[in-house]
Amino acid sequence: MTPANRFLTALQSPRPLLSDGAMGTMLHQRGITFEDCFDRLNLTQPAVVAEVHREYIEAGSNIIQTNTFGANRFKLARHGLEDKVAEINRAGVELARRVALASFKDVLIAGDVGPLGVRLAPFGRVQPEEARAAFAEQIAVLAESGVDLLIIETMTDLYEVVEAIQAARETAPQLPVVASMTFTRDDRTLLGDSPAKVARGIHAAGADLIGVNCSGGPHQILRILKQMRQAVPEATFSVMPNAGWPEQVGGRIMYAAAPEYFGEYALAFWEAGARLIGGCCGTTPQHIQFMAQAIQSADPAGIQPQEPAVVAHKEETAPAEQPTQLAQKLAAGRFVVAVEMDPPRGLSTHKLVAGASLLAEAGADVINVADSPMARMRMSPWAVCSLLQRRVNVETVLHFPTRGRNLLRVQGDLLAAHALDVRNVFVVMGDPTAIGDYPNANDNYDLVPSGLIKLIKQGFNAGLDHSGADIGQPTSFFVGCALNLAPADPESEIKNLRRKLKAGADFVLTQPTYNPAEARSFLQKVEADLGQPLPIPLLAGILPLASNRHANFLHQEVPGIIIPDEIRARMDKAGDKGARQGIQIAIELIKELRDFAQGVYIMPAFNHFDYAAEIIEAIRSVE
Q: 198: which of 13, 179, 339, 380 lies 20 to 30 Å off by Cα?
C-alpha cells in the first residue's frame, strides 16, 4: 500500500487518528536549551530524539512527527547549518522509522515542516518564490526518505502556508498534506486573518486536511475548529492544541492544562469533526495517553460529528477576547481593590514599576493609570499600562478623558490601547488645561463621557467606528464611569449616571468618600430614580489622609470632597502621626463601605504606595 493510501485509508476508520505531542517540550525536559538547534539533535544526540518518539508511541500515538520542525534553510542558517538540510531531514525520518519498526505497531511517519522563521513579502523581504523553494528543498528530502504524509504546522502567515502547500504539491504530489495554522488570543492569526478565512485559503490551496495547532489550550482550539468547519464543511480537519497558554515560573516555561483535561477534550474534538488529533507545546506522552484512552474507550456509534450550521460568511465577526480579569472578578462577586498611579513626568519608569510591584504583591487587583492628572504633562498612560502589564504582570485600568481629544484622536487612541492589550478603560471628562502646565493648550472635545462610553460599547465593541465603518474586528473593552457619592446637585448627578448606564457602562469608580452614611443615602436616591439598585458594580474612592494640613486642603479647596468634622478632628489630634491615623481611618471607612460597594479605588497621596499596600493587606486579612 502506498504512503498516501496508508494515511488516507486510516482516516476512514471509525475513530480519529492520534498524533504525538510536543517534541520541543520533551527535549527541553531532557536538558536541551531553547537556544540549541533541536533539529541538529538528529545527528548529534539521536538516542534522545528516539526516546521521545518511543514514549509517544507507547502512549498511543498512531502518528509520530519527525524532529524536523525547523530543518529548513532559513532557520538552520541561524546555527550555521544551512548546508545540512538534507542530512538533518533524512536523519529525522530514519530515526522515526526505526523507532516505529521497533514498536511492532502500525505507526505512520509524518514529515514535520514548520515556518521558515522569516517574513514573506509584502510584509517581509523574502519573495514567495524563495519561500516555496526553501519548502521544496526540505519536503523533497522528507518524501525521498519515505514519510507517509506531511504536516505543515504552526504557520502564522496565510501567504506562507499557501507557498508550503504548493511546494508540497509540486515536489511530492503523492503525499497527503495537513496544513495547520496557529492563532492569537483573539482567534486571529498574527496578521489578523480569521479562522474562516484561513480555512478557505488552505482548502483552496489543496491541502488534504485543514488544521489548527499551538495557539491556546483545548477550549480555544475547539472554538476555532467549529468556525473553520462551518466555513468549509466539506473539508477534513486536524487539531493539536497547546497545554494552555505558557507561563514563566522560576525560569522555566510551564503549561497549565493537565493530561486528564486533554482526555475530556479529545472526545469534544471528535464530536466537532476532527479526524486527526494531537498535541503541541507543553503536551507530553501523558496528555497523549489520556486522549488515547478516551478515544479507544468511546463507542464510535455514540459520537456522531455535529453538522456545522450553514450561515452566511461572517469571517470578521469572530468572538472577542475573554472578559478581562477585572470583569471576571466583579462578575464573581469578589471584593476588588484598584489603586491609582500617575505616569512619570520624564523617561524613568523604575519607581513606577517598583511601586506597582509592591501594590500587586500586597493584593491589588488592578492598577489605575491616570492621564495627565491636574492637566500636567506626563508620559502617555496607555504606554504605562502596557509597561506595567508586561513588567509586573498586573492588569491595569486606563483613564481615558474626553477633554482635549477630537473624534480622530479618541478613536486612534482607543485602537492603540487595545493593540497594547489594555482592555479596561475608565472614561472621565478630564481636568481643564487652564489649571495645568499649559493653560493655553487646546481644551476642546467632541464627546462627553456618556458619548464616549457609547462609542466604545456600542461601536468599537461591535466592530464599528463612530461613522459606522467596519474596524475589522470587535474590541473587548470593559468600561468604567465616574460618580460622585456626595454631589452638590444630586439630580444632575443621577441624570448623568442614567446616560452612562444607557450608553453601556460596566462599572463605577467614585470620587473619594469620607462619609459612608451620606454615600448610602445618595445611592438610595439612585435606586429610587432607577427603580432598582445600581445595576453595575461600584468601587468606592478612598484617598488616605497624610496629615491635618492635607485633610484641610481637600475639604476646603477640592470640589466634591467633604471631610466630616470628626475625621478632621482626629487628624488634627494625630499631629506628626497623621499618616498613621489616615491609614486607620481609611481601613475603617472600607469596612463600612463594604455594605454597598463591591470594591475600593485607592488614590495614594504623594505617591505613598507603602501606605496603600498596608491598607490592602488589612483588607485582604479579613477576607
A: 13
**Contact assessment for residue 546 and residue 608, using Cβ atoms and an 8 Å cutoff:** yes
φ and ψ at residue 281, rounded to 5 degrees: -50, 135
Burial class (CB in 10 A: 0-12, 13-18, 19+), 482: buried
Q: What is the pLDDT of residue 47?
A: 96
Residue 367 burial class via C-beta count within 10 angstroms: exposed 0-12, middle 13-18, buried 19 and up: buried
What's the rounded Cα separation, in Å, for the pair 340 and 356? 10
Radius of gyration of the chain (CA): 29
pLDDT tens-place string over residues 479-491: 999 999 999 899 9
Question: With b meaning 16 or more CB within 10 Å and e meaning fewer, what string describes 588-614?
Answer: ebbebbbebbbbbbbbbbeebbebbbb
Q: Where in the chain is the domain with CATH 3.20.20.330?
A: 3-300
Helix ranges, 430-532 (H) = 449-454, 490-503, 516-530
Between CA 11 and CA 6 the distance in angstroms is: 9
Which is higher by pLDDT, 448 or 510?
510
Which residue blocks in 421-478 are alpha helix, DSSP H?
449-454
Strands 538-542 and 599-602: parallel
Listed in sequence order, the residues at least 6 apart from 564 whose beta carbon sits closer than 8 Å to its beta carbon are: 514, 515
In degrees rounded to 5, what are phi and psi of residue 404? Answer: 85, 5
Residue pair 218/183 in contact (Cβ under 8 Å)? The answer is: no
Q: pTM score > 0.70 for this model?
A: no
Cα–Cα dist 355/348, whole Å = 13
Question: Between 385 and 247, where is the model more confident?
Answer: 385
Environment class of residue 416 by beta-carbon count within 10 Å: exposed (0-12), middle (13-18) or buried (19+)?
middle
pLDDT tens string 323-339: 999 999 999 999 999 99
* CA 197 – CA 190 distance, rounded (Å): 13
Contact 527, 533 (CB under 8 A): yes
Q: Between 3.30.56.10, 3.40.50.300, 3.20.20.330, 3.20.20.140, what CATH number should domain 3-300 receive?
A: 3.20.20.330
3-state secondary structure of 403: coil
pLDDT beyond 60 at 431: no
Taking the alpha carbons of 9, 11, 16, 19 in that order, is the dihedral positive or negative? Answer: positive
Q: Which residues pair with 397 in a beta bridge?
A: 368, 424
How long, in residues, is the chain?
A: 623
Strand spans (E) along 16-148: 17-18, 63-65, 108-113
DSSP code of 569?
Answer: H
Could you say which of 3.40.50.720, 1.10.10.10, 3.30.420.40, 3.20.20.220 is the CATH number of the domain covering 327-621? Answer: 3.20.20.220
Which residue, 126, 145, 213, is CA-closest to 178? 213
In angstroms, the CA 97 to CA 50 distance is: 10
CA gap 234, 206 in Å, rounded? 13
Residue 211 near residue 239, CB atoms below 8 Å: yes
User: Which three-class secondary structure state does DSSP give residue 517?
Assistant: helix
Which of 250, 316, 239, 311 is closest to 273 using CA atoms? Answer: 239
- The H or E element that residue 259 is part of is helix 259-271
Q: Assess whether pLDDT exceeds 50 at residue 154.
A: yes
Question: pLDDT digit string (tens) for 276-300?
Answer: 999 998 899 999 999 999 999 998 8
Strands (E), 516-584: 538-542
SS3 (DSSP) at 177: strand
Count Cβ atoms below 10 Å from residue 370 Cβ, excluding itself: 22
